[in-house]
Amino acid sequence: MFVGKKLKFSFIWFFGWKNVLQATALSTVVYVAYELLNWKFIDIPILLVTLVGTAVAFYVGFKNNSSYDRLWEARKIWGAIVNVSRTFGVFVLNTVGDSAKIQHYEQIKTIHRELIYRHIAWVNVLRLQLRRPLYWNETSEDNLPHLEFVTLTQETETFDNRVKDYLLEFTSEVEFADDKGKGNIASLLLNKQAERFSELKRADLIDPFEHQQLLLLIRECFDQQGAAERIKNYPFPRFYALFSDLIVKIFAFMLPFGLIGEMTKLGTHASWLMIPLSTLIAWIYY
Question: How far apart are the C-alpha atoms of 161 and 166, rounded to whole Å?
Answer without folding.
Answer: 9
